[in-house]
């Protein structure tokens, strides 16, 4: 989810300080606390005014009329996207910790993943979720675009195991019927596009389709690029293996001590999801950042609060990144905690761990053989 709000430098400072204070204390924040704890060099009245503006645009809210403010999900989103950078120091510490305590040459890959999950959960205080690597990755054998009506086409994809997937789509969304190009011209262009896709995609895993360099289409086919990118991302989701892939989970007892999980019913629904209904959770954790609008251009995928499609996670934040064998995503590292998460640390830790596991897959023949078995 992308939040489009223009903030002044002062409002950005106040939002940053409010989020930092709330993350540290879990208590609503008032202007006096910000003046005392952060060097904002302005009066409490100025800060109250800035907080009022931030509340009006939906980035802060008051849980009670007499209380201070706390960040909304949108406030956290602005904080993550615009006001912080991942902690490089924390990433280096994690890389060194994993290297010191784990040795991928002396253990199975599952043992390596379990060890990494335990280290991350103890280090962060959040729930760590690491998926076992995929053993089957469908590859594209043939693709064909067929015009079925003016402005509509069918995309047909055949995989290496001869399974067929198809999708009907609008070629030119947002334009009137009169503006649609001549059907004969569209038919010729669709054939050229089909040839292009087959040349560049044949033999590639479907999970890699969103990484195609669309600039090679050239200016004359720019009008098709957006719809193809969106469609191929959707087909990548459909191509993922069954959700029976195991998720290794560590740190549940630690995170449940957070005040956000004080209600028994909320804890029960979250535990039900983690322990019994992993089939719902797995696609969310394994989703690549390229496939989502709220993580566009980022290495990590990040769901905050109400952005989560699963109800038990609506009070949580989930940070995840894929680890790869070569260029193919085969598994994912995730970190689940309250929306009051130390995001700059969580993002850095998840990225560093995904890089470590990718290196382990590339360096160890035994692990590579295990994931192919």
From TrEMBL:
Domain Heat-inducible transcription repressor HrcA C-terminal: 110-347
Pfam family, one: HrcA
InterPro entries: GAF-like_dom_sf, HrcA, HrcA_C, WH-like_DNA-bd_sf, WH_DNA-bd_sf, WHTH_transcript_rep_HrcA_IDD
Keywords annotated in UniProt: Repressor, Stress response, Transcription, Transcription regulation
One MF annotation (Gene Ontology) recorded for this entry: DNA binding
BP GO annotations: negative regulation of DNA-templated transcription
Biological role stated in the UniProt entry: Negative regulator of class I heat shock genes (grpE-dnaK-dnaJ and groELS operons). Prevents heat-shock induction of these operons.
NCBIfam families: hrcA (TIGR00331)
Similarity comment text for this entry: Belongs to the HrcA family.
Protein name: Heat-inducible transcription repressor HrcA
Species of provenance: Neosynechococcus sphagnicola sy1
């Amino acid at each position: 989810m992308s939040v489009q709000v223009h903030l002044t430098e002062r409002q950005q400072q106040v939002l940053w300080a409010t989020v930092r204070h709330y993350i540290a204390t879990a208590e609503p924040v008032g202007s006096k606390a910000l003046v005392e704890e952060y060097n904002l060099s302005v009066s409490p009245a100025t800060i109250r005014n800035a907080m009022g503006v931030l509340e009006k645009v939906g980035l802060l809210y008051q849980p009670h009329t007499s209380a201070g403010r706390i960040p909304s999900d949108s406030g956290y989103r602005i904080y993550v996207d615009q006001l912080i950078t991942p902690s490089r120091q924390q990433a280096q510490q994690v890389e060194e910790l994993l290297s010191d305590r784990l040795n991928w040459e002396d253990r199975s890959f599952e043992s390596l993943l379990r060890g990494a999950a335990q280290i991350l959960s103890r280090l962060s205080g959040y729930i760590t979720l690491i998926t076992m690597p995929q053993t089957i990755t469908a590859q594209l054998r043939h693709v064909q675009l067929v015009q079925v009506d003016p402005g509509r086409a069918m995309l047909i994809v055949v995989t290496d195991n001869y399974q067929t997937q198809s999708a009907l789509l609008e070629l030119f969304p947002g334009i009137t019927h009169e503006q649609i190009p001549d059907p004969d011209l569209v038919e010729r262009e669709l054939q050229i596009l089909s040839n292009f896709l087959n040349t560049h995609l044949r033999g590639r895993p479907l999970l890699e389709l969103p990484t195609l360099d669309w600039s090679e289409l050239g200016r004359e086919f720019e009008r098709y690029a957006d719809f193809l990118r969106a469609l191929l991302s959707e087909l990548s989701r459909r191509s993922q293996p069954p959700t029976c892939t195991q998720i290794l989970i560590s740190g549940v007892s630690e995170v449940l001590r957070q005040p956000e999980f004080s209600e028994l019913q909320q804890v029960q629904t979250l535990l039900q999801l983690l322990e019994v209904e992993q089939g719902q959770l797995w696609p969310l954790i394994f989703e690549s950042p390229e496939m989502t609008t709220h993580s566009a251009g980022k290495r990590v995928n990040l769901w905050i609060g109400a952005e989560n499609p699963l109800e038990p996670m609506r009070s949580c934040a989930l940070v995840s990144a894929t680890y790869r064998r070569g260029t193919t995503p085969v598994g994912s590292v995730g970190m689940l905690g309250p929306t009051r998460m130390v995001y700059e640390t969580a993002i850095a830790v998840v990225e560093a761990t995904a890089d470590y596991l990718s290196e382990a897959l590339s360096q160890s023949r035994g692990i590579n053989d295990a994931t192919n078995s």
